[in-house]
Design goal:
CATH topology: Rossmann fold
Helix content: 40-55%
CATH architecture: 3-Layer(aba) Sandwich
Strand content: 5-15%
Strand order of the largest sheet: 2-3-1-4-5
Shape: globular
Number of strands: 7
Number of helices: 14
Order of helices and strands: EHEHEHEHHHHHEHHEHHEHH
Number of domains: 1
Radius of gyration: 19 Å
Length: 297
């Protein structure tokens, strides 16, 4: 343990992946299982140094604050997806929770990268963090975009500490095609009884259609909400999430997102060498079939 043993909360599993790979949907569905406690917020961002696409913080976790992210018993799942690409997270998790299990959502890397790029431009996070991703070539040259797409490199670091059977790898598009089968696999991997999930009640979260940039009023509202203690905020947030409501997407608090941006053949060619090499690594390490994901120039 990094610090006093009594301060480190029990965590049983981690839902990892990359932005725009279906992890938000999966986390929301899993909250219905009576034997699962999904972290609140969904992404505590405590264990990893990667706190988002741009934010990096190498300081040690605040275990006391981390403990408040798990309100009930059952299998406790931390859904901080950015931990997958963090170079320090595997060691921290192994040191504190050596028996942890992992569910990793992976999406076809080119479409994932384009979607992530669009999300950052829509929200203005690049400008807020002193970058300019308006040109795709410049965005792709930024390691902070690449690291979330290069799955093989990320998973290789986790396999230095955990056995292959600790990981369940899920293709993101399977959650659309066969959600019941995917959820059954997740429950089995977490050693939980099967559960009948109400999929109709789950909002298709974090999609481009409802991605709206926050206004000044929205920022004020978000800051005010951050001051509320967890025991007051948590029940309200969970009730709104259950109804598929995101108050930050209300017209007064946000602006309508622009049309989706696409890339051309020249931009796509920028990804070929690195992405294909990484996919080969992923397949070699895990046996995960990547034939349909390789980029053909």
């Amino acid at each position: 343990m990094e610090v006093g043993l009594s301060m480190v909360p029990r965590v049983d599993a981690f839902l990892l992946g990359a932005p725009k790979s279906g992890t938000t949907w999966l986390a929301e569905v899993l909250t219905q299982h009576p034997g699962i406690c999904v972290s609140e917020p969904k992404e505590p961002n405590m264990v990893a140094t990667h706190k988002g696409t741009f934010s990096r913080d190498d300081s040690k976790p605040d275990w006391s604050a981390y403990s408040t992210c798990f309100a009930t018993d059952g299998v406790r799942i931390d859904c901080s997806v950015h931990a997958l690409a963090c170079p320090l997270a595997p060691h921290r998790v192994a040191e504190n929770w050596p028996a942890a299990r992992f569910v990793i959502c992976l999406r076809e890397p080119v479409s994932r990268t384009i979607s992530h790029w669009n999300m950052i431009l829509d929200t203005g996070e690049d400008v807020e963090n002193g970058s300019d991703w308006s040109d795709f070539a410049q965005a792709w040259s930024d390691p902070r975009l690449q690291c979330d797409t290069l799955y093989g490199a990320a998973i290789s670091r986790w396999l230095e500490y955990f056995e292959r059977d600790s990981f369940l790898l899920i293709q993101a598009n399977r959650m659309r095609r066969e959600p019941e089968l995917v959820l059954a696999e997740v429950c089995s991997h977490l050693k939980l009884a099967a559960h009948t999930f109400d999929l109709d009640s789950v909002h298709n979260a974090n999609v481009a259609a409802d991605r709206r940039s926050i206004t000044i009023l929205g920022r004020i509202f978000r800051f005010t909400a951050s001051l509320l203690p967890g025991f007051i905020k948590r029940p309200i947030v969970m009730r709104l999430q259950g109804r598929g409501v995101n108050v930050y997407k209300m017209p007064v608090l946000s602006r309508e997102a622009p049309a989706k941006r696409e890339i051309g053949d020249a931009q796509r060619a920028l990804l070929v060498e690195e992405v294909n090499a990484d996919l080969n690594l992923l397949e070699d390490l895990t046996g995960f079939n990547v034939d349909h994901w390789r980029i053909h120039s």
